[in-house]
Amino acid sequence: MNILEIKNVSKIYNDNLILDNISLNILKGEFFTLLGPSGCGKTTLLRMIAGFTTPDSGKIFLEGKDITNLQPEERPLHTIFQTYALFPHMTVFGNIAFPLKMAKWSKEKIKIQVEELLDDVKLTKYKNRFPSELSGGQKQRVAIARSLVNRPKLLLLDEPLSALDARLREHMHMELVKLQEETGVTFVYVTHDQSEALALSSRMAVLNLGIIEQLDHPVIVYSKPKTYFVADFLGKCNILKAKIIDILDNSIVLFVGNLIEIEINVEEPNIYKKGQVGWYAIRPEKIKLRRIKNDDTMSTESDNDKYINSGTVVSYFYYGHSTLYEILLKNNAKIQVMLFNNKSEDLKFFKDNSEVYIAFNPNSGNFIEEI
Question: How far is Cα 252 from Cα 54, in angstroms, rounded to an integer?
Answer without folding.
Answer: 45
